[in-house]
Amino acid sequence: MANIGAATAQTSPLSRGSLTGRPIQPIRASALCDFKAQPKWQPLFVPALPVLPDGVPRGSIVEILGRRSAGRTSALFHILAQATRRGEVCALVDTNDNFHPASAAEAGVRLDRLVWVRCRGNTEHAMRSADLLLHAGGFGVVALDLCETGVRILNRIPISYWFRFQRAIESTPTILLVSARSSQARSCSINVLELELKVSHWSGRAPFRLLQGFETLVRPRRPAYRAAQKLITRIWEWGQAPPEPTAEPAEERFLHQTVA
User: Fold this and answer.
1) Is 21 inside a domain boundary?
2) CA separation (Å) from 214 to 71, 132, 235?
3) Scanning 113, 167, 229, 242, which has its CA 20 to 30 A from the CA of 128?
4) What is the pLDDT of residues 152-181, one digit of tens each?
């Protein structure tokens, strides 16, 4: 029995390095191809946000964070404008009635393709509205505006909401865009952008000063390996032609222009 076992061990394919009986050939790491899964839907490209060179991935949660006057609404309008220009139907859940349709239209948002949900300060209604919209499907971007919601109210939102949202859109082309002061979706979000106001530009003398624009620094918190970028928002009056974005350096981008 000992000899039979020895003979079996000598002729076994396992002794020659593979289950098929063929010897294993060493392969250099440089010769391996970088296999990358192709997305089912093309991402939404946002040219004014260079920190997202590959665009906003479909079926994901994206957060835009920052304090007041940091450019959160400008970034939100720009993403909505890119989606509605492509003919997509989008939705905006306005928790605290902060949405200004005229500014959105001047930023390029097509209002005829935007569903505006006014919640009049009721955060619970806002979360339920977002839940209904995401499960209904058919929207390119669903924006949830929580910018002016208090910290105590935000802390009461169950984390299960975000996992529910993530499961609802993970196999769809819908993007959930969350705008708030601090991160709410946490690990459920794919991209997290933090905006910080750097410089404000004014004209005139006190007490009759007019805001002409501001510069914002956007830092990607997720993924964190990308460098920060400076964005510019300019304001002009009715009848005045908007400035050309190409007049600025390559590292600077116009986020959007608002009509005063």
Assistant:
1) no
2) 9, 36, 9
3) 113
4) 999 999 999 999 999 999 999 999 999 999
